[in-house]
C-alpha cells in the first residue's frame, strides 16, 4: 500500500457556536500511517476540531476530504463514514448496558453486519491486544478508568477503522492508569495505525508522533515533525506553551 | 338473619356466598391492569422515541433537515403533545365515559367489556408513560449516544441497542408505579359496567347492605395484589441490575469455547 497516500485533508475548517468562533481556519493533511498529535491549551479548539472530523460537531465552514470526498456534504452517508473513522473519548463512553465483550461486538454485528461468531472472535482478539480478556463478562461500571479506556480502544479497533481519533484519552484517568493506556497507543502507533491524538501528554506526543500540530485560539499556530516542534519551535507562542511542560 | 351476625360472621357469610365473585373480579382487575400497563408502555415508548428524534433546524446549517421532515415532525409532535396533555389532564373515570359512549354515539361502535377496559386504561397509561420515557431517554448520558454514533450506528440503532435499554432500566420504577396505580384505578371502570373487583363490591354490598364488611374484604384483596406486585417488581429490578460480581475469565476457557463452537459450525 502506498504509505504516502493522503487519507484526510482538512481545509479552511471553521466552527462557531452562535457568534462564538471556536475554529477559525484550520488546514492540515493526514497521510496513511501518520500519527498526528494535536497539542495546545485547554479551549484552543483541539477537541472541537477532532469532533468535527467525526461529524459529532457539524463544521460551519470549510471542507474535510476523506479520500478526496467532502464528508461535510449533507448527502454523505455519515454512519458509514464514522465506521471507517473511529473515535476514543475522554470519558470512554462504553455502553453501560452491555458487558465488556458485548461492547466490542455490538457495532460489528449491527453496523458491520458480521456474524455473532465472527464478531466474538474479533472482539476477543482486540481485547487480548489491550490485555482485557479476563474482564469480558464485567459491566463498564465494574472496571477501572484505565481498563475502560482500553476496552474503548478495543471496541474502536474491532470496527477495523482506517483512522482512529483520540480525544484526550488519558485526561480523565488517575496518573497510575495513564501508563497502561499510553502503552496500548504506542503499540498501535508502531503497528502503523493512522491516528490523530488530542493530548496533554507531551512526552508521549514527542515520542510517537510523526507530525505535531500546535493550536491556540482556534488556529494552527505551528506544525511540523515532533523534532521540529519540541526541539526547535519557530514561534514564540509554541515555545511559551512547551516551556510549561519542560519544567516537569 | 344477617343482621343478627357479628362483623366477622358477616364477612364469613359474604365470602362463603360471593367468594368466587370477588376472586373473579380481582382476576379481571389484574388482567386489565397488566395488559393495559403493557400496551400503555408500548404507546409510551413509541411516543417518547418520536419526541426525541433530533432535528437540525439551524438556519444556514449544511446539515439542516429537509423542510418536509421538519414540518412532519412538528405536526406529529403537536398531536402527541395534545394526546399527552389531554389524557394526563382529565380524570380516567371521565375518559372512560367519554370514549365508551362517544364511540357508540358518534361512530356506532359498541365496545365489549374487555375492549373498552383495555382501550381506556392503555391510552391513559400511555400518556403518563410517554413523559416518563422521554425523561428516561434524556437522562441517559449523551456520551452513550456519541459512543454509539462513533462506531457507525444510526440514531435508531443507537436507540435500540444502547439508549432504550438504559432508559428502560431508569424508568422501571415508574412502570411499576403505573401498574400499581392501574390495579387500583381500574375501579373507576365500573361506571361503564366493567365487572372488576370494585363492581363486585358494589353489587354485593348493594344486595346485602354490608358496605363496611365488603369494603374490608375488597381492601384486603387490593392491598394483597399491590403488595405482591411491588415485591415482584423489586425482584425484577435487581435481576436487571445483575450481579455485583463478575467472573474473571481464563483465556484457555475462551479458546476451548470458541473451538467447540467452530467445530459444531
How would you describe the overall organization of this protein?
The complex is a heterodimer of chains A (248) and B (265). Chain A is α/β, with parallel strands linked by helices and 248 residues long. Helix content of chain A is 38%, strand content 26%. Chain A has nine helices and ten strands. Chain A has helices at residues 46-53, 78-84, 100-110, 116-129, 145-158, 175-190, 202-208, 226-231, 236-246; strands at 6-17, 20-31, 35-40, 61-66, 69-70, 85-88, 163-167, 194-198, 211-216, 219-224. The longest helix of chain A has 16 residues, at 175-190. The model of chain A has no long low-confidence stretch (mean pLDDT 92). With 265 residues, chain B is mainly α. Chain B contains nine helices and no strands. Chain B has helices at residues 7-51, 67-88, 92-107, 113-138, 142-150, 155-185, 197-208, 211-241, 251-264. In chain B, helix 1 packs antiparallel against helix 6 and helix 1 (7-51) packs across helix 8. The model of chain B is unreliable at 259-265 (pLDDT under 50). Chain A binds chain B through residues 54, 56, 58-60, 72-74, 79-80, 82-83, 86-87, 89, 91-98, 106-107, 110-112, 117, 120-121, 124, 128, 133-139, 142, 152, 155-156, 159, and chain B through 56, 61-64, 141, 143-144, 146-154, 157, 161-162, 165-166, 169, 242, 244, 246-251, 254, 258, 261-262, 265.
Amino acid at each position: 500500500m502506498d504509505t504516502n497516500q493522503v487519507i484526510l485533508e482538512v481545509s479552511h475548517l471553521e466552527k462557531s457556536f452562535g457568534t462564538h468562533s471556536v475554529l477559525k481556519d484550520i488546514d492540515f493533511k493526514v497521510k496513511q500511517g501518520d500519527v498526528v498529535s494535536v497539542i495546545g491549551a485547554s479551549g484552543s479548539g483541539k477537541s472541537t476540531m477532532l469532533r468535527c472530523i467525526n461529524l459529532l460537531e457539524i463544521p460551519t465552514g470549510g471542507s474535510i476530504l476523506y479520500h478526496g470526498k467532502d464528508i461535510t456534504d449533507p448527502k454523505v452517508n455519515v454512519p458509514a463514514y464514522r465506521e471507517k473513522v473511529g473515535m476514543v473519548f475522554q470519558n470512554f463512553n462504553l455502553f453501560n448496558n452491555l458487558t465488556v465483550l458485548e461492547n466490542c461486538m455490538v457495532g460489528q454485528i449491527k453496523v458491520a453486519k458480521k456474524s455473532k461468531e465472527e464478531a466474538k472472535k474479533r472482539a476477543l482478539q482486540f481485547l487480548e491486544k489491550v490485555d482485557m480478556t479476563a474482564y469480558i463478562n464485567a459491566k463498564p461500571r465494574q472496571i477501572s478508568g484505565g481498563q475502560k479506556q482500553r476496552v474503548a480502544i478495543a471496541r474502536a479497533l474491532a470496527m477495523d477503522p482506517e483512522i482512529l481519533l483520540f480525544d484526550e484519552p488519558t485526561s480523565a484517568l488517575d496518573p497510575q492508569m495513564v501508563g497502561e493506556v499510553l502503552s496500548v497507543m504506542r503499540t498501535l502507533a508502531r503497528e502503523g495505525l493512522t491516528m490523530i491524538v488530542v493530548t496533554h501528554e507531551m512526552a508521549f506526543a514527542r515520542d510517537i508522533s510523526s507530525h505535531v500540530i500546535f493550536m491556540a485560539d482556534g488556529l494552527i499556530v505551528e506544525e511540523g515533525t515532533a523534532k521540529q516542534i519540541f526541539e526547535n519551535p519557530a514561534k514564540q507562542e509554541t515555545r511559551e506553551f512547551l516551556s510549561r511542560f519542560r519544567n516537569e | 338473619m344477617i343482621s343478627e351476625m357479628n362483623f366477622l360472621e358477616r364477612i364469613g357469610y359474604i365470602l362463603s356466598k360471593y367468594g368466587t365473585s370477588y376472586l373473579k373480579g380481582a382476576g379481571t382487575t389484574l388482567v386489565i391492569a397488566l395488559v393495559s400497563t403493557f400496551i400503555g408502555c408500548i404507546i409510551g415508548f413509541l411516543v417518547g422515541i418520536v419526541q426525541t428524534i433530533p432535528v437540525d433546524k439551524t438556519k444556514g446549517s449544511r446539515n439542516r433537515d429537509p423542510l418536509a421532515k421538519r414540518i412532519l415532525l412538528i405536526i406529529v409532535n403537536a398531536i402527541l403533545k395534545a394526546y399527552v396533555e389531554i389524557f394526563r389532564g382529565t380524570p380516567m373515570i371521565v375518559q372512560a365515559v367519554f370514549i365508551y359512549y362517544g364511540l357508540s354515539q358518534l361512530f356506532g361502535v359498541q365496545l365489549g367489556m374487555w375492549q373498552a377496559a383495555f382501550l381506556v386504561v392503555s391510552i391513559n397509561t400511555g400518556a403518563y408513560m410517554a413523559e416518563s420515557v422521554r425523561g428516561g431517554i434524556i437522562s441517559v448520558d449523551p456520551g452513550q449516544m456519541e459512543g454509539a454514533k462513533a462506531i457507525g450506528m444510526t440514531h435508531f440503532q443507537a436507540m435500540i441497542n444502547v439508549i432504550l435499554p438504559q432508559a428502560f432500566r431508569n424508568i422501571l420504577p415508574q412502570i411499576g408505579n403505573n401498574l400499581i396505580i392501574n390495579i387500583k384505578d381500574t375501579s373507576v371502570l365500573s361506571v361503564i359496567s366493567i365487572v372488576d373487583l370494585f363492581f363486585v363490591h358494589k353489587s354485593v354490598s348493594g344486595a346485602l347492605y354490608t358496605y363496611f364488611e365488603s369494603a374490608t374484604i375488597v381492601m384486603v384483596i387490593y392491598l394483597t395484589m399491590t403488595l405482591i406486585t411491588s415485591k415482584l417488581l423489586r425482584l425484577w429490578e435487581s435481576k436487571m441490575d445483575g450481579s455485583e460480581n463478575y467472573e474473571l475469565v481464563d483465556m484457555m476457557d475462551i479458546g476451548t469455547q470458541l473451538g467447540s463452537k467452530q467445530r459444531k459450525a
